């Protein structure tokens, strides 16, 4: 079963490929995405990584990891809550 990870406090120049490369060291990455602001096209400073294998190891290794001077926040992503209208 795959594990979906939340990655916060990303350096703003980090792209989805950088994220995939960083996490592929710990297991098989299915997909990685840095969330972009629709208005500005800039990174919002967080993203998600879906891992087929090695998810728990990646959390342990990457939570608090210094990436370009920023301490990453990595944990298991919570399922998306429906938005209230």
From TrEMBL:
Tell me which SUPFAM superfamilies the record gives. Answer: RNA-binding domain, RBD
Task: Please name the PROSITE patterns in this protein's record.
Answer: RRM
Q: Which CDD domains match?
A: RRM2_NsCP33_like (cd21608)
Q: What keywords is this UniProt entry annotated with?
A: RNA-binding
Query: The RRM domain covers which part of the protein?
Result: 3-79
Which GO molecular-function terms appear in the entry? RNA binding
Entries under SMART domains matching the protein: RRM (SM00360)
State the superkingdom. Bacteria
* Classification via PANTHER family: HETEROGENEOUS NUCLEAR RIBONUCLEOPROTEIN 87F-RELATED
Report what the protein is called: RNA recognition motif (RRM, RBD, or RNP domain)
Organism the protein comes from: Polystyrenella longa
């Amino acid at each position: 079963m795959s594990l979906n990870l939340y990655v916060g406090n990303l350096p703003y120049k980090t792209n989805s490929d950088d994220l995939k490369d960083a996490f592929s060291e710990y297991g098989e990455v299915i997909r990685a995405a840095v969330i972009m602001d629709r208005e500005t096209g800039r990174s919002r400073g967080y993203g998600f990584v879906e891992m087929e294998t090695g998810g728990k190891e990646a959390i342990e290794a990457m939570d608090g990891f210094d990436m370009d001077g920023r301490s990453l926040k990595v944990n298991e992503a919570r399922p998306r809550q429906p938005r209230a209208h």
